[in-house]
Design brief:
- The protein has 329 residues and is of the alpha/beta class.
- It folds into two domains: 13-219, Alpha-Beta Complex (Spore Coat Polysaccharide Biosynthesis Protein SpsA, Chain A), CATH 3.90.550; 224-328, no CATH class.
- It is built from twelve helices and ten strands.
- Strands 1, 2, 3, 4, 5, 6, 7, 8, 9 and 10 form a ten-stranded mixed sheet that branches.
- A hairpin with a 2-residue loop joins strand 6 (122-131) and strand 7 (134-136).
- Helix 9 (276-289) packs across helix 11 and helix 11 packs across helix 12.
């Protein structure tokens, strides 16, 4: 076994890695966490009933490295596995890595530096995308700090850190009485929202630390169906609750809500969903109500504003354009 060299003067960071049938990606994921420059990490590899060789790969890494703990469980899904990991974590801070993704070696050292300097409860970093082994860069220089209401508004806009759990670190105490909802798709949305509500400030590193691998079988890339529609319920909850809590930010919240809704309307159009007209009518009404807010919104590009307005006022044209865009891609 290789003894992990750590600096116990630094806070312990627990990295929770749910594992399910990812034998082709797991080794790269584990090595990227092992090679982190931050020197006080424990890694929890939680095998969620894998039927391929993922469990054996977990055992290999657990036997090789002293800071890796391996758990084997019956299959319960991502949310239950993350909840189990939180309960088992010994660190003061938590991070999450999906086992088909990987991270840059300075991701956690950069984020924990802010924790140490600012006593931060939540630090986020930007992320890159890997599509067919090609890296699409999103990162840039800079670090920003947001108060609670602005941090929550930013969750709804794609140029920021979004609702994903893995590109963030959290003080563990924020998850007291907060769990990922079992049996739900897009389980990050409401959970991350609730955790953000418990923190007064959120720090965002614009440089990318995390790499999301876009797989063809990923639920986030799937054609619209009844299960993926759950995201609209989750975003609807966030929208309604945040409007109540932060009335001064209603316009930005609603435009962010429209952005999410439109992304799934596109999937419904491409998939010829039976519920398509319902979704079109709903978002058209919201767009018309918040037309002025869309036009003056500072977080949207000009092209995105045009997209919203076409969707709201020219449904047939929008439907045609969505299909053409999908065909060209």
């Amino acid at each position: 076994m290789e003894i992990y060299i750590k600096n116990e003067k630094l806070p312990l960071l627990s990295i929770i890695v749910p594992v399910y049938n990812v034998q082709d990606y797991l080794e790269e994921c584990c090595n990227s966490i092992i090679n982190q420059k931050y020197l006080n990490i424990e890694i929890l590899l939680i095998d969620d009933g894998s039927t391929d060789n993922s469990g054996e790969i977990c055992d290999y890494f657990g036997e090789k490295y002293s800071n890796i703990r391996v758990f084997h469980r019956e299959n319960e899904g991502l949310a239950a596995t993350r909840n189990f990991g939180i309960a088992q974590a010994q660190g003061q801070y938590l991070g999450f890595v999906d086992s088909d993704d990987w991270i840059y070696e300075n991701m956690y050292s950069d984020m924990m530096k802010i924790v140490l300097e600012k006593n931060a409860q939540i630090v986020c970093c930007n992320f890159d995308l890997e599509i067919d082994k090609r890296i699409i860069k999103r990162g840039k220089n800079g670090i920003d700090i947001y108060n609670k209401n602005e941090a929550i508004v930013n969750l709804m806009y794609p140029q920021f850190y979004q609702f994903y759990a893995p590109n963030k670190i959290f003080k563990k105490e924020l998850f007291q009485n907060v769990e990922f909802p079992i049996g739900k798709h897009f389980e990050d949305i409401i959970t991350i929202y609730k955790v953000f509500l418990k923190s007064e400030k959120v720090y965002f590193i614009w440089q990318s630390g995390y790499v999301y691998r876009q797989r063809k079988d990923s639920i986030t890339n799937a054609i619209f169906n009844s299960k993926s529609a759950e995201v609209l319920d989750a975003i609807g909850f966030v929208m309604n609750d945040s409007k109540r809590r932060f009335p001064n930010n209603i316009n930005d919240i609603m435009v962010g809500y429209i952005r999410y809704y439109i992304s799934f309307l596109d999937k419904a159009i491409i998939g010829n969903s039976k519920e398509l007209r319902i979704y079109q009518m709903t978002i058209q009404d919201v767009i018309k109500k918040y037309k002025k807010a869309i036009i003056i919104n500072k977080k949207l590009s000009f092209a995105r504003k045009i997209q919203f307005l076409v969707c709201g006022y020219f449904a047939k044209l929008y439907e045609l354009l969505a299909k053409i865009k999908n065909f060209l891609n």
